[in-house]
């Protein structure tokens, strides 16, 4: 089941990277297989009660977030229809009537919750006549693409780099990798992006400097976004591997006469991934909901900008929609990470 | 085994069901396409509801109003649009518009005066909740209709006389009324199309228009493609396609321009202006917009006329403009350069000696007794530089210390409404190239007058000028009103006329820069 999920996922990512539109059926197949995997995993590990509890908690968390956000929006100064050219009271009144902003706050809140229960996130105040759910559905794919590609780069570079650095502890390999990692951690993504554009677009005319229309367009933003977390992962992995390498069971494995690489990959690596896993929760949600700056710099039609601009515009429904989506992804990513803990380190028990 | 089967099945399904995404240039021929960028996704293409410049730019190419501007004339004279002629009764309170015949919408339906009336009534309808409804409150019974007080639309002063004639009755005389009909929200609409598609009537494929271009593709947050409208009644567009990418970041757009991916860029990154100005593609155009400081005339010490005068005379506008480096034009009067009524020989002149004398007379001979006043602006690099320059000037020239305060845009707007600071920065962009548009927002009861200042004589002059049909007589009234603002009462301090800077690739001829910022692309030619 896990293999199937992984295979399908890799296949989808590859297809998407090559600039194909993913058919809806494939996206659903991905979702079903991933859910199926976690269902199976939950069942086989007998952690059904734990998962149910966590899911219920997630629901409560989201409800609290929706309520708090709703309340905070009414408290912050400046309303959605305050503009440079002030609207006359008559005009403002009809606009507020249209969006129910003239009703008492509890009525607005009730209507909002009622809509939410039916999956209706309301209509944007800024982009007239556009349902928030449609806006999210349209801007989510580029953001997810950017996020998933970057995530894969992070793991593909970060974990091996950390592992090798630790395996060759205090050698030139270690020093080089760590100098690279520390530079990577220190460099904000927009600096990396600017340098990449300067080199690859202007100096060497190899890759486009902006837009989002196929493999050549994906490379620069993905590297720019992925560099920093890759560096963090490399450092985490190295530290963790160094710790594990000196543990008793590794000494036992060595004493049994197991090969060096077998020990490294089978015994050390798996047990060293816990810190990386912890870091992955926020990382996944952070990358999936997009980096505002990278999307801006590369004119990627993603939803990162909505997350920021909706607040500037006081576009209440869009702010609420984006906040809920971000929270849901964060909560889910953390749940998945927690579930994976016991996979990587069976000593961790989840049922409490 | 079943695993592999499933895999193979999904793979097959995926490959057969997959299609490549459209390429970035939508397969358009480069020689037939003008490529540009929009700074934001257009908030709406529903022209009745639109209120921003990006939406207007797109709509101005899809649609046309009853009346339009001759964008080649410096004074932006009116010229026929959908209407071939218009005339008013003697006191300019009833206006009759005769429509051109044989105009067809892009779906083949004939354009009639009813569509024009529908457009105006829809703008007023409270259910539309259009921001610019107030724009035509001058029409008889428009205001009560827009609040829902008056339900009967036939009592609004909009009458369809016949298929080709529209008569509009105003509440009071208004000499510049036809100008209002150049403004996007007043454009005619097709109620049948709107009823059929609801909110999605503005999507490509649904929208029906009658301008020089048709909406071919609108990929939200990504790009817009316009295609030449072959049934357009006017002079046909010279370039068959317009491709506009939505690029929020000015630096990114500049990259695209430098790499030859777009042909023109309208908002240049402010911090690169000094470099870009040296390039041959650089162009600038003064626009009908002003940057000014307002004084809260009820907040001590700004309630003292001498203090307001002293501060106004101690600020060197030339120095500010030079520091900003965007080609802005120092403004002495209230009406911007390029508009009727502009006069550079008015206002208080920069004179530090006089300024110091005035401040002494105001009772602050000992400068340390001058209260700490606040200059507020909305968070923005340019505004900050400007505010810091004013702060430095006032300190060195008057010896007074002012405090700077910046606020996020919406917070700032609320501050202006509730408790305007001593000095605040604001801008005003013309909706129409008429002085009334600049004068009437400082009337004592205007929602846009944050100065707490009012002058009955000023109100009288501005209201009277709106109804005067003789141009010379009108300008005399505005002249007096302007002098009240910048010489007598000083509730405001105009700083400069705004200038738009842009870069245009050499392969583009006929780029439509003009003072009212109406970007009409139909005269653009692509040469190679």
Largest interface: A-B, 65 and 70 residues
Number of strands of chain A: 1
Average predicted confidence as pLDDT of chain B: 94
Give Rg of chain B in angstroms: 26 Å
Helical amount of chain B: 25-40%
CATH architecture of the largest domain in chain A: Orthogonal Bundle
Please specify the SSE layout and strand pairing.
The complex is a heterodimer of chains A (352) and B (528).
Chain A lengths: L1 H16 L2 E2 L2 H21 L3 H28 L13 H10 L6 H13 L14 H36 L4 H15 L2 H15 L11 H31 L2 H9 L3 H13 L1 H15 L3 H6 L6 H10 L2 H29 L8
Helix pairs in contact in A: 1-2, 3-15, 6-7, 6-9, 6-12, 7-9, 8-9, 9-11, 9-12, 12-15, 14-15
Chain B lengths: L1 H16 L1 E2 L12 E6 L14 H10 L4 E3 L8 E3 L2 E6 L5 E6 L13 H12 L17 H6 L10 E5 L2 E5 L7 H4 L10 H7 L15 E7 L3 E6 L12 E6 L3 H9 L5 E2 L7 H4 L5 E14 L9 H10 L2 H8 L4 E2 L21 H13 L8 E6 L2 H18 L3 E6 L1 H10 L4 E7 L6 H4 L16 H12 L3 H19 L2 E13 L3 E2 L15 E2 L2
Parallel strand pairs in B: 2-11, 15-16, 15-17
Antiparallel strand pairs in B: 3-4, 5-6, 6-8, 7-8, 9-10, 10-11, 12-18, 13-17, 13-18, 14-18, 19-20
Helix pairs in contact in B: 9-11, 15-16
Description:
Chain A contains 15 helices and one strand, in the order αβαααααααααααααα. Chain A has two domains: about 45 residues; about 210 residues, MetI-like (MetI-like fold, Orthogonal Bundle). The mean pLDDT of chain A is about 90. Chain A is mostly helical. Chain A starts with a helix and ends in an 8-residue tail after the last helix. Chain B has about 525 residues and is an alpha+beta fold. Chain B has three domains: about 160 residues, Periplasmic binding protein-like II (D-Maltodextrin-Binding Protein, domain 2, 3-Layer(aba) Sandwich), CATH 3.40.190.10; about 130 residues, Dipeptide-binding Protein, domain 1; about 210 residues, Roll (Dipeptide-binding Protein, domain 3), CATH 3.10.105. In chain B, the strands form five sheets. In chain B, strands 12, 13, 14, 15, 16, 17 and 18 form a seven-stranded mixed β-sheet that branches. In chain B, strands 2-11-10-9 form a four-stranded mixed β-sheet, covered by helices on one side. In chain B, strands 5-6-8-7 form a four-stranded antiparallel β-sheet, with helices on one face. In chain B, β7 and β8 form a beta hairpin. The chains are: A mainly alpha (about 350), B alpha+beta (about 525).
